Amino acid sequence: MSTSERDGILFVYLNNAVTSEVTLFPVQKELTYFWQVEVSSGTVIPTVLDVSWNLEALVTVQQTEQNSTFFKITLLNNRTTIEDAAAMQLSFCGTFDNGDFTTITVSKKDELWSINMKRALLTLLQLKIPRIEEELSFIDEEAGIYGKCTVEYGVVDYGYKKVHKNVDHDSCKSMPIEESANCATNLCPSSYQVHTSFNHVYSFARSAFLQNKVTLY
């Protein structure tokens, strides 16, 4: 069985507050991002089976002075009815520590599948802010839905910083999943085999068009 996932490009703004705390988003501002996800999985033996699932949504972000970040997802042009995906559109809150994702707070009405997707989104947004401000390339670890994984960073400065992240899923520790198969697993004769590959691109730039004063949720 193989699984792959592709995420759209996100543009994120790094905010240096008056205090020593560094936030991913500007305080007391509202930003909106376009989020696109494509997930596919399938088998080859004993029969060919391929299943794919797509999601397009707007993600509205509001940053508080207490370093709690509020998120709201608005689904766009999806085959699933809004009633079936109502939990996905419930607001939620994420907490980051200098760019590292630490906690998620959700509504009592939220559902497990929705919470897992929101947690995945927050782990995708996390960045090693102190290091990308000083280094052009480095390897570090991040905790996410796949456990604690090794992540390779590449940073390019165009007047704004463009960050490439590559997650090595073979390195993940305490991965909270169980694997099973109805046929023998055929492994490639190589230590470089990778079951799943992700490549994320982040660009940081101030945008007066996206930033407006708002009343927080």
TrEMBL record:
Keywords: Signal. Pfam families: Vitellogenin_N. The keyword Signal applies. The keyword Signal applies. SUPFAM superfamilies: Lipovitellin-phosvitin complex, beta-sheet shell regions. It comes from the Eukaryota. One of its GO terms (molecular function) is lipid transporter activity. Coiled coil: none annotated. Residues 77-180 form the Vitellogenin domain. Gene3D superfamilies: Lipovitellin, beta-sheet shell regions, chain A. PANTHER family: CROSSVEINLESS D, VITELLOGENIN-RELATED. This is Vitellogenin domain-containing protein. It comes from Rhodnius prolixus.
